[in-house]
Amino acid sequence: MSQPQPTDWRRIAADGIWNNNVVLGQALALCPLLAVTATATNGLGLGLASTLVMTLSGVLVALVRGLVTPEVRIPVFILVIAVLVTLVDLAMNAWLHDLHKVLGLFIPLIVTNCAILGRAESFASRNPVLPSAFDGLMMGIGFTLVLVALGAVREIIGSATLFADASLLLGESMAFLELTLIPDYPGFLLAILPPGGFLALGFMLAGKRLIDTRRARIRARGATAAPV
Fold first, then answer.
1. If pLDDT is split at 50, 70 and 90, which confidence band does 102 have?
2. Torsion on CA atoms 171, 173, 175, 177, rounded to nearest 10
3. How much is the pLDDT for 1?
4. Residue 228: per-residue pLDDT
5. Stretch 17-42: mean pLDDT, rounded?
6. Residue 2: which pLDDT band, with cuts at 50, 70 and 90?
7. H helices of 171-193, where?
8. Between vectors from CA 14 to CA 206 and to CA 54, what angle results, nearest 5°?
9. How many whole angstroms separate alpha carbon 33 and alpha carbon 151?
10. What is d(CA 110, CA 116) in angstroms, rounded to the nearest whole number?
11. Is 204 helix (H, G, I), strand (E, B) or coil?
12. Which pTM does this prediction carry?
């Protein structure tokens, strides 16, 4: 009987944050990404909610994977994700009501995020609990980083602020995040409108492609120069 392979934690982290990033690598969840990232605060709020759902769904799917038959696994996974999203939605409505109003429909729509169901099917249903939880956490962090980065770029260009209304939406403890970079800035409306989101996302995708290409060339040079 073959021994189980050790978990490659570094690879899981690299895949979630960079190599197989939900947005930059898989081009998923673009609808909420472009809709809520007019500010970095909104992106952070949705990213944290999505990360929580991804992590918990990985745990629950890994726990029930031996009890679910292949014929019904997809409906069961969707039901698990829907329950978790409902709990997160209710919790945000109770404790982060202002943020809940801003994000609106996009919180319940986390259920339809193909990245969450995809990781449940491709990873959590085939691995133990701890690696599945870590995979969900890393995927969520990667998604959150893109949400915050895109929101920050659009907010800085559009209104010269960063994490505006963080204390209102995320609580008074987050007031330290609020920055005004240029007082009396006239604003650049295009950046916070949907076309600005598409443009900023396009530059981010191009940047990742350039970085990956350069890294591949460096590795190829290293392999060529290595002694035989």
1. confident
2. -110
3. 38
4. 53
5. 91
6. very low
7. 189-192
8. 95
9. 9
10. 8
11. helix
12. 0.91
Phi, psi torsion values for 192, nearest 5 degrees: -100, 0
Instruction: Give the contacts of 222 (CB within 8 A, at least 6 positions apart).
Output: none
Please choose, from the candidates 5, 125, 106, 119, the residue with its C-alpha nearest in 3D space to the C-alpha of residue 47.
Answer: 106
**Residue 143 near residue 50, CB atoms below 8 Å:** yes
Which of helix, strand or coil describes residue 149? helix
Sign of the CA dihedral with 171 first, then 175, 176, and 177 last: positive
Query: For residue 27, is it left (φ>0), alpha (ψ between -120 and 50) or beta?
Result: left
- Measured CA to CA, the distance from residue 100 to residue 107 in angstroms comes to 8
Cα–Cα distance for residue pair 205/82, rounded to 1 Å: 30
HSE-up (13 A, CA, CB side) for residue 109: 14
The dihedral formed by the CA atoms of 186, 190, 196 and 200, expressed in degrees to the nearest 10: -30
- pLDDT per residue as tens digits for the range 193-227: 989 999 999 999 999 999 999 999 988 887 776 65
The phi and psi torsions of 214 (rounded to 5 degrees) equal -65, -40
Q: Which two tokens stand for residue 125?
A: 């249903």
What is the SS3 assignment for 88? helix
Vertex 124, ends 121 and 126: CA angle to 5°? 85
Per-residue burial over 50-68, b = 16 or more CB atoms within 10 Å of its CB, e = otherwise: bbbbbbbbbbbbbeebeeb
CB 74 within 8 A of CB 68: no
Distance CA 214, CA 103 (A): 37
C-alpha span between 53 and 155 (Å, rounded):
26
Residue appearing with tokens 């490659």? 8
